[in-house]
Amino acid sequence: MKIIIIGGSIGGLCAGIALLERGFDVEIYERSAKGLKDRGAGLVIQPDMMEYLIEAGVSTREVFGVLAAQRQVLDDNGNPSLIYPNDTVFTSWNYLWKQLRSAFPSSRYHQGYELAGIRDEHKQVWAMFKNGETIQADLLIGADGVSSVVREYLFPGIHPRYAGYIAYRGLIPESELSDEEIAFFSDKFSIYPYANSHLLCYTIPGPEGELEVGKRLLNWVWFQNKSLAALQEILTDKDGRQHEFSIPAGYLSEENLSELRARAAKELPEILRKRVSQTKNPFVQAIMDMEVPKMFQGNVAILGDAAYLVRPHTASGSAKAYRDAITLAMAIQDTDNLQSSLKIWNDQQIGHARALAIHGRQLALRSQLGK
Predict the structure, then answer these.
(1) What is the pTM (predicted TM-score) of this model?
(2) Is 2 helix (H, G, I), strand (E, B) or coil?
(3) pLDDT exceeds cutoff 90 at 58
(4) pLDDT at 40 (0 to 100)
(5) If you compute the radius of gyration of the chain from its CA atoms, what whole number of angstroms results?
(6) Please, how many CA atoms are within 13 Å of residue 277, restricted to the half-sphere of its CB?
(7) Is the pLDDT of residue 154 over 70?
(8) DSSP 3-state assignment of 155?
(9) Are 22 and 83 in contact (CB under 8 A)?
(10) 123 DSSP 8-state letter
(11) Residue 290 has what DSSP assignment?
(12) Cβ-based neighbour number of residue 115 at 10 Å
């Protein structure tokens, strides 16, 4: 079976690796011509995803990420008021993507292919790209993220909806922290909860995957309620350009950067206030909700953020994309009825995504975040 995947991010690469393992003829088409943008953000590796990628030879347990053996809840003075065991492994989007990309054949990963249209007829599907090429396949998989062109083809008019709050994020090299500060955060998941917000910190691998103490990065995430009008202002970057869902590092306007630091000085304990003020290039993510009625139609399927968005509190965004990809490969393995297999996969993954979405909204409400 010939399969083409639109999107070469984490979900697309997981699907490509799993499908190749099962003997499918699979190619990935990524719209970026120069490689994916450095996203930098930290993320949680769920145990099942970690075990699969170790078994598949993508990574080894020793270099997968940074284990946080404890969780500490901070009080208004920045002191731990509660400490209990934790076994979360943290990594970064960049580090995970680089490992996945190295595990997928370069000859099957094509850059500079921006999807322009899809034609789906009977048992064949065609992808038309803006560079003029048209590729034929038996199955097309959309793993092209929150702004998915494949989703727009399947379900015109379904778009992400603002959830009423944002996440400011920042990365600080451990080399810029004192030994005492490194020890305070090292190998811990730290959270400061307070009215209508919370801020969390954890350590992730360094820019090139460094795991040694002193060479890693401290990742912080600060959730804040914002009106739609305030969101539009925040998503206007320092050059006056309007962004749809996020502001990348280095592009936050001076006005919004000043407001962020002023709010930190007013609301955060000193050990966290210093982290925000010393972050050179914080970035912003608008929290969105989105769901589709189904994850396939004809010979076209979608997965990951192209199909469902779940709140970051679930720590399941990348894991959901991975599970969508792996279960799809398993569902169509040895099938003689693609449509029937896709329906079984769809029913399973839609149920899982809906449960995650509900759980994420519940977690946000507990923190008084969003609508």
Answers:
(1) 0.94
(2) strand
(3) no
(4) 60
(5) 21
(6) 14
(7) yes
(8) coil
(9) no
(10) T
(11) B
(12) 22
Token digits of residue 304: 């990951």
Residue 171 CB contacts under 8 Å (≥ 6 apart), including other chains: 40, 42, 204, 217, 218, 219, 249, 279
Structure tokens at 158: 């379904």
112 close to 31: Cβ distance less than 8 angstroms: yes
Asked which of 4-8, 30-34, 168-172, 358-362 is least confident by mean pLDDT, the reply is 30-34
- φ and ψ at residue 355, rounded to 5 degrees: -65, -40
Q: How far is CA 260 from the centre of its chain?
A: 23
Rounded Cα distance between 77 and 6, Å, is 48
Look at residue 39 in the predicted model and tell me its pLDDT. 60
Q: How far apart are CA 10 and CA 313, in angstroms?
A: 19
DSSP string computed for 200-260: EEEEE--TT---STTTSEEEEEEEEE--HHHHHHHTB-TTS-B-SSEE-TT-S-HHHHHHH
Structure tokens at 26: 């699979």
Output the CATH code of domain 2-33+112-160+290-366: 3.50.50.60
181-199 mean pLDDT? 96
| Band of pLDDT at residue 274, cut at 50, 70 and 90 | very high
Reported as a single tens digit per residue, the pLDDT across 281-296 is 999 999 999 999 999 9
SS3 266: helix
353, 307 Cβ separation under 8 angstroms:
yes
Domain ranges for the chain, please list them.
Answer: 2-33+112-160+290-366, 61-92+163-287
The CA distances from residue 338 to 98, 272, 283, 331, 346, in Å, are: 32, 52, 42, 9, 12
Closest by Cα among 151, 104, 122, 119 to 6? 151
The average pLDDT across 17-32 equals: 96
Length of the chain counted residue by residue: 371
**Is it the case that residue 356 has pLDDT exceeding 70?**
yes
Contact 9, 97 (CB under 8 A): yes
- For 61-92+163-287, the fitting CATH number among 3.40.50.300, 3.40.630.30, 3.30.9.60, 1.10.10.10 is 3.30.9.60
Taking the C-alpha atoms of residue 14 and residue 321, their distance in angstroms, rounded to an integer, is 8
Tell me the pLDDT band of 52, cut-offs 50, 70 and 90: confident
Burial code of 173-199, b = ≥16 C-beta within 10 A, e = fewer? ebeebeeebbebbbebbbbbeeeebbb
